[in-house]
Amino acid sequence: MRASNAFRVGLSAVLCGTLAVPAMPAAPRVDPVRPLDRNARAELMLQRFTFGPTASDLQSIRSVGIETWFQQQLNPQNIPDTSFETRMDVYPSLRMTQAERLQRYPEPATIRVLARSGRLPADPELRAIVSDQVEFYQMVQDNKAAKAQPATNSMAAPMMSGAAEKPIAQTTAQVQAQAVVANLEQTTPAMEKPEVDAILALPPNDRYMQLLHMPPAELIALRKGARGPLEAKLVDGMSPLQKETLLALSGTNRMMNAETQGARLLRDIYSQRQLEAVMTDFWLNHFNIFSGKDGQEPSLIPQYEQTVRDHALGHFEDLLVATAQSPAMLRYLDNATSTGPNSLASQRERRNPKNKSNSGLNENYARELMELHTLGVNGGYTQKDVTEVAKVFTGWTLERPYDGGDYSFNPNRHEPGSKTVLGKTIKSGGEDEGREVLHMLATSPATAHFISTEIAQRFVSDAPPKAMVDRMAQTFLKSDGDIKAVLLTMVHSPEFFTTATVNAKLKTPLEYVTSAVRASGAEVTNPLPLVQSLQQLGMPLYGCMPPTGYKWDEETWLSSSALINRMNFSLALATNRIGGVSVDWTPVITDSSAAIMRPVAMTSASSDPEAMRKESLLEAKLFEVPISAQTRSAVISQGNDNIAAQASQQFSQTNNGHVLTQAEKDAQQQDKLDEMMMGRRNGMQPAKAAGGVKGQAVVQRGLGATPAKMGPPPADKQAAAMAGLLLGSPEFQRR
Amino acid sequence: MFSRRAFVKNGALALVGTATVPQFLVRSVMAEQATAQANGKKLVVLFQRGAADGLNIVVPYREKNYYAMRPNIAIQPNEVLDLDGQFGLHPAMAPLLPLYQKGHLAVVHAVGSPDTTRSHFDAQDYMESGTPGIKSTQDGWLNRALQAERIDPKVATAFRAVALGTQVPRTLQGRLPAVAVSNVANFSVGNSQGAQAAAVSSAFQEMYAGTHDRILSGEGQETFEAVRMLKATDPAHYQPANGVVYPNTSFANSLKQVAQLMKANLGVEAAFADINDWDTHQAQGAVQGRLANRLKEFSEAIACFWNDMGQDAEHITLVTMSEFGRTARQNGTGGTDHGHGNVMFVLGGTIRGGKVYGEWPGLEDHQLNEGRDLAITTDFRQVLAEATQHALGTRDLSQVFPGANLGQDQYLRFV
Question: At what angle do helices A445-459 and A466-478 cross, to 10 degrees?
């Protein structure tokens, strides 16, 4: 749409300017911009303000009208969401406060501190959880010591059950130590079946306590002895909290990454509060953070997401302050460690000559605050402003993780004296300086324009009409950054409900995946394989390393690689080849009530009436607006059994011709997911992301991961393949 | 020696081993010939995203102020891998030292963008568009460089410009189609085995060819042509040459696939890959640590690529870039903040390597840019222009880098 219009406008200029322009292909049909009818408005609302329309959304928006529907969505607290909330029951840690979470599931840095201090929690359950991790950490440390000091005696041997009794010659011990930790998973023998069976026979509570008190090496042995279906049985009958606790034995970060990403995707797919979910995604991207920043970041993400959600439809300044004071942002952009060069803390440090000074100013947050969060890159600030703002925010830091890890202002680290920001003097005032600067930035016209442009780019088009953006910016300034008011101004702009907006946006991978799952009515029992698909499609959740966040534009997301990945994803989804997701097309193709046949291109060789009937029903299920006759004809003529039979091995695994058993496939799938949750992606250092020790294999010790089983093979392969083709069609790429 | 006859004998035609050569393969062979006639070379562009710390990559170890400004993170004179008595490589870059010593690797120091922005986003954008300070530029410099080449469009293949990753980077965006490949072995629709694969693929192909959505239609056609070409080269069974074993990192994997695509004679003229995580604001380390780990990954992958390409490396010009350098002084948290001047590498079989190019501005306080960063004495476009001219035979550089001052008197002459 955008390209076509641009083409028409620019055509005469191009012809006048250069005659050497190669002949363009036949001029495309350029429809004049028209307002939309009632149905098309409803469809557009859902395409823009949900993660993809569903049949029930359409029903509800038609019954109450678009204005009421939008008002309802703007006030999410009044929309009941119990069915989605029930899905969150399996993630108890996400309902804890940050302090509770950090206490029960300490992050790697805390484990190191506890290991050195030897101070373990008094509560027996917490003590068992923590001591397992401490013990494992010490095993790895001992091994490092053995490596570093070849002459000293090695402590690594006792970790091998059985080998502990007799002393081993030093050199052998060193060699073994290296091999053992590097390949703990391989070298630990699997627990014998009778022993596993004895554990399985215990009542759930006893079983839980026994598993919790197992030494690390024994847990590995058990995990190996109980691979496959037995692993799920180990946690049978346990409460969600007990299950989660056992999972966390693999490392807090792995568990936290799996829960935060899985829960976010489930919310986007199933929450009735769709606008809130969409706006939360918008702001999480605007105020981007990255789960692989360091070993602390994953534990801080749940609170960050909740903070952003709480303010997603509120006032911009509140959101800005909330992100500025959130532990996740303070860490991600390094402000937590920034210290005033003339602060008390720095002076003290300088007085101690032994101290390798590692504290001082860090400009990272100050720069991104102005460039990305508020004014925009052309917002009129200088390098001097960046340095001054960095001074303003010195002392904005967080408590130690084992003290709760919340935001706190540390006056000892704050740079004394007044500062000058954007020509204005900020009087010396400790923490208040930062609030004053945030207020100044939040109320700047540059910010109003920058935020309005970004909102319009997400909800209207890559190059939104200037008049509309200006109007939104005016509302932003007049309403003190009321995000609801800005959205209403956008929707009420005459440019919004027009044919120019329809399909102007290419779906991002997140929008593509969620809209496909929502349209198909798929049931997600384990979201992690979908989380993995997002990664393959180039848009992992909390996985964008630079502070810019992901772009929303077509240029970024359209490529050969992207198209191929999308086609393969859609085939895999429709034919139940993605673990943890199952879709059933039978009710769709047996629905006798709704069969309006849509026209097929004349070129179609197929006249198979059964294929045409199924296509028609599937199309009506997945698309509100009829697709092109060409797409329809391709679906009908190719929708045969062959396709379903070989539809997309791409998103599952192939193993050089060796046919894998289902158990092997499940195990492989689980390993891949584990690896992903450990942070082995985007070239990140896995050990760093997992908070492990560099250069050491991270060993899997957690138990009872929810299996990511694939759904049953489709009952009607033809229908499933046709649905896959429809979901991968050009029409489904846009919104 | 690489001759056209040898190519026809061993190249794409031999891969198929049949009299009925598909049209697209004929095109790729013709492309190889046309390119070979023009210059016989290929260009590889590597982007270090996040602003790599050039002062700790090629260390000016004679500068007293370098050590004064970086008390905890400096690389000591006895730790560097000496290049010329003035500069030395970071010790983690040992895999690249032999390439420098053999004269294949050239270093350009104090190089960068004349634009003063310290925004990652803007600086990358300017470097990739090739027009510092101008935001309205629609396409990338490498796309324009290929456009400027005099080549019959009929022989250009879908792989003429290829980017490793899920997205086409700004550098390669533009009128000339570029293909993004994240994994060559998986680059197909449905299962690539057997005749049935055609069914899925052709259904999608028909849809995308027929759609009125011009943008998706164009992308779809490019995609399916690329799939067909790649499939003919059996990408799943690639064996690197000379016993090279690439490390298991995403950057090494990208370079492995660049080698694979180039050796498959698919008509690749320009390839792009990037490596993330150079934004070392905090605890970047010295001889060991975060930056050292990045440099090790970076250097090992490039050395593997070079060795894997073997004889063909002669035809390759590889150039590295990063959006800006970092502050000359370490910051308060054991890292460095956003700076200005940086270092670039040029690697190639016909490069005058073994030398550090560029005028050195010095690191005394008064010599620093804005009192804090390495100053710039060479425009990054100069380096890219000479490399491009060498590799692609581009004559009219004003089209590639409009507004840049690229006169003969500016040439570094590393080619």
Answer: 130
